[in-house]
Amino acid sequence: MPLVYELWDELGAFPASRTDDALVHLMQWFRRHLDADNVIWLGSLRLLDDAAAKKDPLLGWRLRVRKSFVLEKKSYRQLVASYFSDEHYGRLTSAFYRKGNRPNADVHIGMASWQTVREAGIFRAHRLRDGWIDYAKFRRTEHYRLYYTENDIADRIWTVFPASPTVESIVLLDRHTSGTRQRRHFTKAEADLAGAALRGAGEFHRRLLLLHGVFRNVKALSPLKLRIVQELLSEKSEKEIAIATGQRPLTLRKYIKGIYAEFGVRSRPAFMSLWLGES
Asked: What 8-state DSSP symbol labels residue 82?
């Protein structure tokens, strides 16, 4: 556990304005200590109440943000963009319902996704082959071919942190094949280490989800708005933020007012209190 304690201290040393840097640090830690080839972070939000969720292919849950440490294959990125960007990330469209409820729904909604939403509300850490899902059956699906084989994923660990009844922070650890070389599978000890590392990092999860609009169900922030949010969490004055972001003061003020409105606050102190857990 000393490794885990050191990680928590390192994550805690990052100020709120550098939350994304803390995420990169976490991903690098997993690559170094668990021999992961890639680390992916997902912010998930439940958008439907119980009655409506029962009729939904993912029980009302949607991914709102996805960050991958390693740039995936172009074909895989195109696959994700073609299906998920418009109909999955935070939107509930009729097209998604049709795809999610038709007989071949598992093409895009795999067994792991189904099981993940069924277990919502509890912390969990699972391996691809630990009996969490029927791996032999999963491996025969078209979803597995598209989302695992085509992307050279040989093994995966899922860790899911329930930040609230309607918000979850998900970290995926992947090992890839390399040509004909088969990577060793993750062990139970490695999954336990991943779970321990993430289960005790609640403040990190909360800040990350808040920064990317998941906690407040804010629309995905543009790169400029995200930069302004990070600057607002620093000690810089608005004049200094305008210079840092290349915006005219009046233009910046409009952006800031819009950001405050999206997060449901009216002032910078109230905005910053969100990151302190006081609001």
From this structure: I
Nearest to 218 by CA among 253, 254, 251, 258: 258
Q: Which of 89, 87, 98 is nearest to 57 (CA)?
A: 98
The DSSP element (H or E) to which 1 belongs, if any, is none
223-275 topology per CATH: Arc Repressor Mutant, subunit A (1.10.10)
- The closest alpha carbon to 252, from 271, 272, 231, 275, belongs to 231
Cα 246 → chain centroid: 29
- Is it the case that residue 195 has pLDDT exceeding 90? yes
Domain ranges of the chain: 2-211, 223-275
* CA–CA separation, 105 and 95 (whole Å): 12
Q: How far apart are CA 209 and CA 213, in angstroms?
A: 6
pTM of the model: 0.88
pLDDT band, residue 105 (cuts 50/70/90): low
Quick: pLDDT tens for 40-91.
999 998 888 888 888 777 888 888 888 999 998 888 888 777 665 544 555 5
Rounded Cα distance between 203 and 11, Å, is 9
**Residue of 212, 215, 236, 240 whose CA lies nearest to 226:** 212
Q: How far apart are CA 93 and CA 112, in angstroms?
A: 22
CA dihedral 132, 54, 213, 264 (to 10 degrees): -150
Same fold, 2-211 and 223-275: no
Is the CATH code 3.30.450.40 the one for domain 2-211?
yes
Sign of dihedral through CA atoms 208, 211, 217, 219? negative
Closest CA to 156 of 24, 30, 4, 8: 30
